[in-house]
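Q: Predict the assembly, please.
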Amino acid sequence: MGIQIIEGNFAPGKGSFAIVAARFNQAVVDGLVGGAIEGLQRHGVAEQNIVLVRVPGSFEIPVAAKKLIETGKYSAVICLGAIIRGETDHYDHVAGGAAKGIAQLSMEHGVPVIFGVLTCDTLEQAVNRAGAKLGNKGFEAALAAIEMVDLLGKINR
Ligand code: INI
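A: Predicted assembly structure:
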């Protein structure tokens, strides 16, 4: 007996995954996309169960993610972008809009919408988190998606 613990595993192969990736700061985002695809495939997700959608910038991620969720075809949406602080407050608007939009979608639809958007002060910090010195946030986002799909399925049962 004891306490019932419900948590997700990295269950191999289950579900279809959409990746929405911003083209802005594409050199960095491509690292995240590569990491996310590797994370999915190494956990048994087949190529035909992965779709990649490109949007101009991180600000456009939520609307594309919403459309993907509405198709009902995807178990999770992985959002990838790189927002790098400039001289103006544009950064705050883009980062705030992306984060708020992504969080809202998850809550509204009950589908995991994973925040794999880097918010950094410098390009170097972003590069380091996209496969250079500090791991790959795209890979981590893919694992979070797989775990959440498994978890939400278990809670439903
Ligand atoms: N989009 C990003 O993804 N990263 C950024 O660093 C960025 N900056 O710095 O401006 C950025 N801007 C574009 C934005 O996402 C929209 O595409 C644009 O405002 C059109 O709506």
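The chain has one domain: 17-156. The mean pLDDT is 95.
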